[in-house]
Amino acid sequence: MAEAHQAVAFQFTVSPDGIDLQLSHEALRQIYLSGLHSWKKRFIRFKVSVVGHMGEQSPLGFCKQTKVSMTFMSILCVLVGTGLWVSIIMIMRSVLKSLLSWHGWMYTSHGSVAWSTRLWMVLVKVFSGRKPMLYSFQNSLPRLPVPSIKDTCKRYLESVRPLMEDEQYQRMEGLTKDFEKNLGPRLQWYLKLKSWWASNYVSDWWEEYIYLRGRGPIMVNSNYYAMDFLYVFPTSIQAARAGNAIHAIMLYRRKLDRAQIKPVSRDTVIFVPLCSAQWEPMFNTTRVPGLETDILQHVNDSKHIAVYHKGRFFKVWMFYDGRLLLPREIEQQMARILADTTEPMPGEEKLAALTAGDRTPWANARETYFSRGKNKQSLDAIEKAAFCVTLDDTEQRFESDNPDQSLVSYAKSLLHGKCYDRWFDKSFNLIIYKNGTMGLNAEHSWADAPIVGHLWEHVLSMDPIKLGYTEAGHCKGEPHPNLPGPQKLSWDIPAEVTMVIQSSLKVARTLADDVDSHIMPFSDFGKGLIKKCRTSPDAFIQIALQLAHYRDKKKFCLTYEASMTRLFREGRTETVRSCTSESCAFVRAMIKGETRDECLRLLKQAAEKHQNMYRLAMIGEGIDRHLFCLYVVSKYLGEDSPFLKEVLSEPWRLSTSQTPLQQVELFDLVRHPEYVSAGGGFGPVADDGYGVSYIILGENLINFHISSKHSSPETVSLIPKIQLLILNLTVTTWIPTKTTGRRSMDQEAAVIL
C-alpha cells in the first residue's frame, strides 16, 4: 500500500570493491548473495515437500506399511521406485511451470472464453493435483522476466509525456536515449545474470532498500491499517471481542502452519495460482532496528501473544494442557488484564514510542539497554510473540449521526494511535477498543496488503457468525477454573532510555498530528452499474481520481497504483502509472463540456489503456521495478546515471491502491449487506500529495480512504475535496426512451463519472 513513499527520492550509496574487466566485484557479490538466499529457501521447501509426501505416497512408505523385509532386492526396488516417483513429480512441476508462464488468459473477453484458454485451464487443473495446498505451486511458478531496456525506456517516455511541456520532454527524451544506448545495456547484463541465479531479481532488493534501509519512522510512512465492520457491532464487551478475534487468528495460524489454506488465485473464474511466499513471516515476526538497516526476525513457533493495556505489557500463553485456548478462555485472560490496576513500571508506559520514531536512535537504545537481563527477556516476549494486541482505552466506531468525524478518529487511531500504544515493529497489531470495535495495524516490509487482508477476511467471517456470542455479549463457553493468569512483563529502564523515548515520541506525534484523513463509504452506485459500461471498475475509479485531481489542482501528476507480480515466484508489487495520455484526453473533454457520446468514447479508450497497463504490470512488463533494479546495479558499479537519478526522484503526488476482497465466498453481501468491512488505508505518501485506498464491496458500495498532510497548503482530504470526488463519481445521465420509458443498456452505460 505505502511502498511508494519510500520509492520517492530513493537514494543510497554503495562503494564497489573494484572493477576488473568491466565487472564490479560488489555487484557480482550482491547477485551471488541474492541467489544463495533464494536457493536455500528453495531447498528447504523442496525438502519439506518431499518428506511430507514420502511417508504417504513413496515406495518406502508402502514397504513400511506392508512390513516387507529389507533385502537387497527390496532396497533396490525402493530406490528405483522413489527415483521414478521424484522424477514424475519434477516432470509435472516443469510442465505446470510452462503452463503458468502463458498469460494469454488475461486477454479473455468477459462472457467468452477461447478454446485455447479452455484447454489451458484443463491442463492447469490436471497438473495441479486434486487438493493443492498453500505452497503446492511455489516450485512451479515461473521467474519474473527482465523487460528489455528498449521497451522500458519507450514506456517510460510514454508515461511522462502528458506531464511534461515540449521542452522538458525533449530534454528527458535525450537522457533516455543516451541511457538506452550506453549505460543501460551494461546494467541490464547484471540484472539478467541475477534473474538466472536468484528466484526473483527484484524482491530482495525491494525489501532491503525500499523498506529495511529506511531510517525514518515506519509509523504512518510505511505501516497501514484495516478496519472492522462498518455497520455491525457484534458485542460491546472488549474482552469478549478480543477472545473471538484472537482465537480466529490462532486458528488461521494453525491452518497456515499445516499449509491448509487454499492457494490464492488471481481470477475468480479461471484458477491461476499466486505466489504464497509472503505468508511465511505472517506470525512470530518482528522488524528489528539496526544502525544502517533493519532485519526481519522470524521464529518458527511462538505459543504466546503480547498484550498492551494502559501502559503495561503482558505475556499471555495461547495454549494450556497441550491445546489452543478457547474463545471464552481468551476472554477470561483479557478480562484479567483489564481488571489489573497495577501501575506501569518507570518508563514502560510509552516504551513503544521507540518503534514509532526514527530507526537509528531505537537501534542504539536496543543494543545498549535491551540486550541483557530482564529488559532482554521482556523485549523477547514482545518480539517473539505470535502477534501483539492492544486493549485500547478509547472508543472508536462508525456513528451514523456523525459519520465524518467518527471515521476520521477511527482511521487515525488505527494508523498511529497515541504513538506509544502499538508495537509498530511487529508484523501486525490487533487493536480492540473499549466499546468492542477492532482493527489491525500492519508492518509493511514482510508482506503487502492483500496478505494481511486475507487473514482479516478470515477473522471477520469467523467472529460474529461461526464463533458468535451469548445474549449477554460474552464468548460462548465457560471460563477455565485453573487457567494460569497473564504474566506482567518487568523492565529496568534507565533515564537515558527515557530521554530517547521522549525524543521518539516527539517525532512521532509531529508526524501523526500532520495526518489529514477522510474515509468515505460511497453507496450511490458500485461495480454493478460500472460494469454496465463494459468498463473495469478499477479503471473507472482511477480515471475518476484523475478527474478529481485535475479539478482540484488544474494539472496532472505522476500517479502510482499498486499492482502485483505474484504470478511469479516471490513476486511482490509493480506500479501502474495511471495518468496516461488517454485519461488526460478524457479529463480535458469533461472539463470542456464535450458531448456525452464523446466523453464516453474517451472514457472507454482510457479504461482500455489502463487495463492493458495493468496486465503488463502483472506479467512482469512494468517499468518501475526494472528501473529501480537498474539504479541499484548502477550504485554497485559506482556509475552515475542522470536518467535514473531523475526517474527515481520523481514524486508520486497521487498514490493509490485497491484492497481486493479475495474470499468472496465468506461473505453473502446479497443477503447480509451489513457485513461489509470498511477496508483499510495508509498515510500520505508525498508531503504535497494524496494517498488513496479503496475497496469495492458487493455491487453497490465503494469505500475510500484518503490521506494527506495538514502542513501542505496544496492538499486537503476533508469535506470539500470529498464532495468534489462524489460529484465526479455521480454525474450521471438518465434519459428514458421515448418508446418504452425504460432505460436501455446504452443509456445505463451513460455513467460519465
Automatic annotation (TrEMBL):
It is a multi-pass membrane protein. SUPFAM superfamilies: CoA-dependent acyltransferases (SSF52777). GO terms for cellular component: mitochondrial outer membrane. The active site is at 444 (proton acceptor). The chain crosses the membrane at residues 72-92. Pathway: Lipid metabolism; fatty acid beta-oxidation. GO terms for biological process: carnitine metabolic process; fatty acid metabolic process. Residues 144-715 form the Choline/carnitine acyltransferase domain. Its EC number is 2.3.1.21. It is an enzyme of class 2 (transferase). It catalyses: (R)-carnitine + hexadecanoyl-CoA = O-hexadecanoyl-(R)-carnitine + CoA. InterPro entries: Carn_acyl_trans, CAT-like_dom_sf, Cho/carn_acyl_trans, Cho/carn_acyl_trans_2, CPT_N. Residues 1-47 form the Carnitine O-palmitoyltransferase N-terminal domain. Its main location: mitochondrion. One of its GO terms (molecular function) is carnitine O-palmitoyltransferase activity. It is found in: Mitochondrion outer membrane. Keywords: Acyltransferase, Fatty acid metabolism, Lipid metabolism, Membrane, Mitochondrion, Transferase, Transmembrane, Transmembrane helix, Transport. PANTHER family: CARNITINE O-ACYLTRANSFERASE, CARNITINE O-PALMITOYLTRANSFERASE 1, BRAIN ISOFORM. Belongs to the carnitine/choline acetyltransferase family. This is carnitine O-palmitoyltransferase. It comes from Gasterosteus aculeatus aculeatus (three-spined stickleback).
